[in-house]
Every structure is written in structure tokens, then in C-alpha cells.
Amino acid sequence: MDISGNTIFIPGATSGIGLALAVALHERGNTVIVGGRREDRLAAIVAEHPGLHAVRIDTADADSIREAVADVVDAHPTLDTLIAMAGIMRIEDWRAPDGLLDTAEETVTTNLLGPIRLIAALTTHLQSRPSATIMTVSSGLAFAPLRVTPTYNATKAAIHMLSESLRLQFAGTGVSVVELEPPAVRTDLMPGHAENEQAMPLDAFVDEVMQLIETQPDATEIQVESVKFLRYGEARGDYPEVVAALNRIDPHGK
Fold first, then answer.
1. Is the pLDDT of residue 45 over 50?
2. C-alpha 130: how far from its chain's center?
3. Quick check: pTM over 0.85?
4. Which of 102, 148, 219, 251 is within CB 3.0–4.6 Å of 240 for a Cys-Cys bond?
5. 241 is a domain residue
6. What CATH number is associated with residue 22?
7. Per the residue annotation, which of 9, 143, 152, 205 is the catalytic one?
């Protein structure tokens, strides 16, 4: 992915990593369209960041995705990059089933079906461009589980394998598939997460991501240094220790 000169659609960019990336990419000379559900929030973002564009989209709603994609392509026919950013993270306890299924299904719909529907809606258009990029967003938790978020972990693992598979299918076309793999970042993804001192500061994360995009334009996975502890536990042979550290448990059960 080139660092500038793109037309980029980022659903789920009204806060957190999505908005910070949208602003940083716009500052690097890209046309950026942010997507989100709340029209008042979209209007505020456009007012605060002149030059950004916005479209209403609910990535949990298939009809909303189709309508928003059609609007974006109509208004921005040079669209060549999708960053499928929208996601939710919910604490679950599978030992207590009350409300569990609703939470799990909502997570799957947003985190997995949303990106699948977005990519499906744009594959024809993206293949019509001289070059194009699909950026998926998984997580360090795709590679090592956080005990309290089973469905989130599962959806991000699925996004990783979806990315791997689509990269094989789009080989030989002008469409590149890039996977962004965030570690824990200080955002409002979950209550209290923005104040978590163990998480990476948002500005530092975005700065490192932008540097990686600029210096490694052909990378298939965008990994800030701190996520590699989770990403490569199995390859290093210390996976039990990684899971233990993530969940603060004794890997030997003592």
C-alpha cells in the first residue's frame, strides 16, 4: 500500500484507531471517507477535520453496507482502498448463558460479517482500478486468547485466515490484501481501556503504523513491535507463557 495518493474508505472511523488513522492518512495526501452510524458525529468530524468526507453506514446491517458503498463509489469513483475498521469487543462468560448468545451473535455480525459484506460489495470496483488495497483489521488476540473475550478472539482469528485466503485469490490481480494487527491500544473499545497503562498509546500506535506503511509498502501484515509478542508465540515455542502473561496466570498451573 502506498502512503499517499489513494482514495480510502474507512467504515468504523468515528473514534479510536479508525479516526486517528483517517486523520493521519488524510494528512499524508489521501482522500479519506470515514463511515459511521451517527450522523451528528460524522458532521462533527468533517467540521473538525476539513477535507475529510463522511458517509453514514451501519456495518451490522447488510442493506446499509450496500447503500453506503454505492454512495461512496458514486461520489468517489477513484476509490481504491478499503480499510474495514469497524469492530466491537464484549466481555463474555460462557459458564453463565444468560444473554451470552445475543452478545456473541452481535460480535460475529459486526466483526466478521461486516468486513465480509464490505469486501464483497467492493471487489468488482476495486478490481477495476489500476491498483487497489483491501486492509483488514485483526488483532493480537487472533493469535493468543484473552480469556474474557472468546467471541472477539474467534472473529479476529477468522479475519486473519480470511485475509490469508483472499490474498491467495487476488494474486495476479491489482488488488493487494493487507492485515493490520493491533495490540491493545488505548481507545474506548471497552470500558476503562483508554486508561489501561498496559495498552499502547493511540498516537504512538498510529505513528508506528504510518511509518510501517511508508517503509514497507509491500508488507502483507502490519505489525507494530509490541504485537509480535502475541503474534509469534507459537513460532517461538513460548505460546503457554504468552497466554499466561496475557491472562496473568501460571502457565504451569501452580
1. yes
2. 24
3. yes
4. 251
5. no
6. 3.40.50.720
7. 152
